[in-house]
Amino acid sequence: MQPNVISINEHKENSLDKLIKDAQKGSVSSFERIYLLFEKRLFALCLRMSGNNALAEEFLQEVFLLIWKKLNQFNGDSQFSTWIHRIAVNHIISYFRVKKNCDFTHDELDTNLFSTAFDNQSFGRDLENAIATLPDKARLVFVMYEIEGLSHQEIAEQTDTSVGTSKAQLHRAKKLLQERLA
Prior knowledge:
- With 182 residues, this protein is mainly α.
- It contains eight helices and no strands.
- It has helices at residues 8-24, 28-50, 53-70, 80-98, 121-132, 136-147, 152-159, 163-181.
- The chain is elongated and about 50 Å long.
C-alpha cells in the first residue's frame, strides 16, 4: 500500500470523527447525519430489547435526545458506536427497572431489519417473532447475552440483579424459544 493512500475505513472514521466534533460544537446538520448513520442499528436494538414496535420507536427518539445532551461527554476513549449503544441499552434497562410490571402487547415486528442476519428469511422472522414474545426480563437477558455479547456479570450489574438471576433468565428464554420454534 502506498503511504499517501487512505483506506476506505480510515476515511469513514475520519468523516465520523468530523461529524462528531462538529455536532459537539452545536452543528444540528452534523447531528442529523449521525442520526441517519445509526438510526437503523439503534432501532433494531430497541426493537429487540422491547419486543414492541411503538415502544422501540419511542426509545429510539429518547436515546437520540440523550445522545445529543451527552455528546460533549464523548471523548473518543471508545468507538462512538459502542458509546451510543451503551446509552441505548442503559436507557432501555432503566425503563424496565422503573416499570417492573410491564404488560404491553407485542405488536408485529418489522422483520426486514433482521432478515439479512439469516440465510433463511423465514427462520429469521420466526426467531425475531419468538424473541419478541418472551417475557420482558427473559427477553432483555437473552438479547444482552446472545445478541449484544455481554457477560452474565455485566448483565447483572446493569440490571441490578445477581449473576444467578441472569443465568436463570437466559435459561428460561432459551427454553421458551425452543418450545416456540419447535
